[in-house]
Amino acid sequence: MWQSAYRGLIDQAFLDGLTPEARARRYTFGQPGIRMPVTLVAVRDATISGFVTFGLCRDEDSTGEVMAIYVDPSQLGTGVGRLLIEAARERLRGLGVSGAVLWVLEANTLARRFYERDGWAPDGARRTAVYGDGPVVEVRYRRTPV
């Protein structure tokens, strides 16, 4: 999913080197702990349609963070992404946070439009990340209330 989402946005050699096993080790899939991120998985017809990872913000106290959301390219436009982000926001509200943030590639206009339709807006923060040989600019979006 991430390889499709970032094609043309991140160094292709870096994307080609990613494996599902290596990526899966980064996710908690519901391991307990208030600071531990949680991953929710959407399944349709016994196939993973997408997932969202969220938790308490790594940078700000009393703020939530959506750390990752990916939808299978064949499921784009079916509402899976909307259901995932709504479920993440509901769980974050349950943690008592008043707002949430997420980081998105500045050049990822499809993702940015998705977040904006869900009520997120850029808050002015930017950072540069390096994936493989190529630096990319990320912008932070914020939603208050979550």
UniProtKB/TrEMBL annotation:
Return the InterPro entries for the record: Acyl_CoA_acyltransferase, Bact_Acetyltransf, GNAT_dom
SUPFAM superfamilies given in the database record: Acyl-CoA N-acyltransferases (Nat)
UniProt keyword Cytoplasm, yes or no:
no
TM regions (residue ranges)? none
Any Pfam family matching the protein: Acetyltransf_1
Q: Which UniProt keywords apply?
A: Acyltransferase, Transferase
Q: Which residue numbers delimit the N-acetyltransferase domain?
A: 1-143
Q: Name one GO molecular function term.
A: acyltransferase activity, transferring groups other than amino-acyl groups
The highest taxon in the source lineage is: Bacteria
Q: CDD domains annotated for this entry?
A: NAT_SF
Asked whether the UniProt record includes Transmembrane among its keywords, one would answer no
Q: Which PANTHER family match?
A: AMINOALKYLPHOSPHONATE N-ACETYLTRANSFERASE-RELATED-RELATED
- What's the protein here called? N-acetyltransferase
